[in-house]
Every structure is written in structure tokens, then in C-alpha cells.
Design brief:
Strands 3, 4, 7, 8, 9 and 10 form a 6-stranded antiparallel beta sheet that branches. A hairpin with a 2-residue loop joins strand 7 (125-131) and strand 8. The two termini are 23 Å apart. By secondary structure, the protein is an alpha+beta fold. It has 5 helices and 11 strands; from the N terminus they run βββαααβαββαβββββ.
């Protein structure tokens, strides 16, 4: 099932969560909500190295988005088949180029209900698309989690359309 991103955007998008499993931007559920308080110097060094690698890829190699796994080793394959994954929505929002006048986003659910959230909340959200290695079917195609984890126990489920207002 696909999700439409429409409304006050320059480029309306159609998102297909079934292909995100191959996208390098995905994060595991644990990575998304691990404690940010316990950051060691080693982690900071890793982040700095990752940032410099991203910079080099963007500037010198003119990297094509979305990044796609070039090869998957056995461990990664096992992780994909059993993992629970989320996709940060920020890159999609940036690509759609939200109009400056936009104030909120309306999430249309499977049962035709709608929930309104701020643009900031939308930009800083994750979409759960795979649970235990399988696409989200029950109350799917995606569940929305706020990056701060405030709705970790009760995510917004069954999103079929996002309308920027």
C-alpha cells in the first residue's frame, strides 16, 4: 500500500514503504529510541567520521538519492529478515518542498479519520514500515512515531495520506 504526501507542497510524492527495506536511511527500532544521554567520545568520533563520509559522498561523488544497499552480507540479510525498521520522514519532506505558509499536516487514516500534527512534529518523525522482518499489515501500511519517543507506546497507525495544510 502507498502513502500520498500532498497539499501545500511544491512536489507531491507517492511513498511506497515496501521498498524501504533496501534503503540505507532506515534505522532499527532500537537505534531510533536509544538513550541519547549516554553518548561517549567514541560515539562522537564515529558520528564525526560518518558526517565526513557523507560530505565526501555528497560533494565529490555526487551521490544519487535514495541510497541503496549495494551488497548485503549474511548478517545484514538475517537482520533484515528479522528486524523492526523505521524510516525518518525528513528527507521526503525536504524533497517535497513544503510551502512556507504551511502550519500543520493532516494524517488521513485507514478508517477515514484524521489527526493533525505540526510541521515540526512531522519533520521529526519516523515511519514504522517493517515489524519482525515483515511489512506492517495490521493497521498499516505505516505507523508514525515522534522522534522524542513521546508516542512510543501508542503510535499513530494506519496512515494512508499526509496532507500539508
Amino acid at each position: 500500500m502507498i502513502i500520498q504526501l500532498t497539499g501545500k507542497v511544491k512536489y507531491p510524492l507517492t511513498l511506497d514503504p515496501t521498498v524501504w527495506i533496501f534503503d540505507d536511511r532506515k534505522v532499527t527500532f532500537e537505534q531510533a529510541f536509544e538513550s541519547k544521554d549516554v553518548v561517549s567520545e567514541i560515539d562522537e568520533g564515529k558520528e564525526l567520521k560518518k558526517a565526513s563520509e557523507r560530505w565526501n559522498q555528497e560533494i565529490y561523488q555526487q551521490r544519487v538519492k535514495p541510497p541503496v544497499n549495494k551488497s548485503i552480507n549474511r548478517y545484514q540479510k538475517e537482520q533484515i529478515l528479522n528486524g523492526t525498521f523505521l524510516m525518518p520522514i525528513y528527507d521526503f519532506i525536504a524533497t517535497s518542498e513544503i510551502n512556507e505558509e504551511a502550519e500543520q499536516a493532516k494524517l488521513i487514516l485507514m478508517n477515514e479519520e484524521s489527526i493533525s500534527i505540526s510541521i515540526n512534529q512531522l519533520e521529526n518523525a519516523y515511519l514504522l514500515f517493517a515489524e519482525n522482518g515483515k511489512p506492517v499489515k495490521e493497521n498499516g501500511p505505516v505507523h508514525l512515531f515522534f522522534r522524542d519517543g513521546s508516542n512510543r507506546e501508542e503510535p499513530i497507525q494506519g496512515i494512508t495520506k499526509i496532507i500539508v495544510e
